[in-house]
Amino acid sequence: MLKVREDAIIQAVNRLLSEKGFDAMTVDEVAARVGIAKASLYKHFPSKEDLAAAAMVRVMRQAQTFCAALPEAAPPLENIRAVTRWTMGLKLAGNMPSLPSQNSTLRATLMANREYMDGLIEVSDRLGGWIEAAQADGSISSRLPAIAVLYTLYARACDPVLEFLKMGGQHNDDEIIELVMSTCFDGLNARPPETSAPHKAH
Amino acid sequence: MLKVREDAIIQAVNRLLSEKGFDAMTVDEVAARVGIAKASLYKHFPSKEDLAAAAMVRVMRQAQTFCAALPEAAPPLENIRAVTRWTMGLKLAGNMPSLPSQNSTLRATLMANREYMDGLIEVSDRLGGWIEAAQADGSISSRLPAIAVLYTLYARACDPVLEFLKMGGQHNDDEIIELVMSTCFDGLNARPPETSAPHKAH
DNA sequence: GTCTATAGGAGGATAGAC
DNA sequence: GTCTATCCTCCTATAGAC
């Protein structure tokens, strides 16, 4: 059916966006990978930008699903860490579309896409709530504006450190994720020895 | 003279690469901004990739100069922090060329450019030395491979958090830099209050 | 070395038959 | 809704006069 075919298209777009990025991806490639003619693609999606937007909607829905499955009763920091891990796993597995942040027509298409924007807002609200809760309970630094924390988490989805470490071949995906998790949450500075934990209990 | 004109070209390229990135930048734009004909550009640089490479050589030289001016006697962490600050300042000021990490012909051109590669290696060696020294003196975490630390520092040069915070308009450049410095070195986690140094003397 | 003019090709999008 | 064939724009690169 139509739905199945469009899913196949979006998946191909997703992988190509992850492999080469929006600019380097050509509509011909998408068509070739799906196994249909380019003109047929345009019966489903009106433009290359809309193809990318559909891929973004897909990952956004996945993110919503993932967030919704997390226990609301858990410590907020744990949920934040879980989402961050999941995001980086997606990228390392080649399933995170990468879009240029400068392209204006692409931005316009994305911002005109209600499903994408709604998803983005819902995810941001949920993460934002966890961030503020984590700052309130003393697990995330309160010196940082919550929005800066949110951006820092989002940035993990396109962190070049992930691919560099992967190219190095010294670590597997899980090790890479834990390394970047550590730089993200613990920072580069050395920490005082674990034995003198401040007040992690309760 | 020739040298002066080429400097003007490289500077224009540098700004355009910072504003729009490599793919969106057109050679016509470069020519227009310099105020010469496109064909004249090609008398100076054989290809668009070489234009970008020249811009990269320029920033790499600036980085070398900056590093060389830092006091070797200073604590290694301070030199690392200084370079990181300088890099982010460059980006916020619109002077950090941004290249796609996927483009293969561009990568080939860059890696064939001896001046760029030599500069990259020198800077990496110097930073690498400081990183290992900082790990030895306990100021940077020893649990992280030095190469991961190096990549994390390099990634600050293209950190989207910088532009997002700038677009937000809530902070000036210096505040943004300090925020990202904090996320980078201190991490997102809360730290124990400064007053309670690791082992209190009673 | 600067210009005008143009080649050459890639790639997004469409026409129209079936 | 799928195809083949084609259009058309944009952009890199070059030709050739001065």
Of all chain pairs, the largest interface belongs to: A-B, 51 and 51 residues
Series of H and E elements of chain A: HHHHHHHHHH
The dominant shape of chain A is globular
Count of DSSP H/I helices of chain A: 10
Q: Percentage of helical residues of chain A?
A: 55-70%
* Head-to-tail CA distance between termini of chain A: 53 Å
| Biggest sheet overview of chain A | none
| Low-pLDDT stretches of chain A | none
Quaternary structure of the protein:
homodimer
Query: What is the radius of gyration of chain A computed over CA atoms, rounded to a whole number of angstroms?
Result: 19 Å
Strand content of chain A: under 5%
The assigned structural class of chain A equals mainly alpha
Mean pLDDT of chain A: 95
- Number of extended strands of chain A: 0
Question: Can you describe this structure?
Answer:
Two copies of one chain form a homodimer. Chain A is mainly alpha-helical. The first copy, chain A, has ten helices and no strands. The longest helix of chain A has 23 residues. Chain A is globular. The N and C termini of chain A lie far apart (53 Å). The mean pLDDT of chain A is 95. Chains A and B meet through helix 1, helix 8, helix 9 and helix 10 of A and helix 1, helix 8, helix 9 and helix 10 of B. The first copy, chain A, binds a DNA duplex (18 and 18 nucleotides) through helix 3.
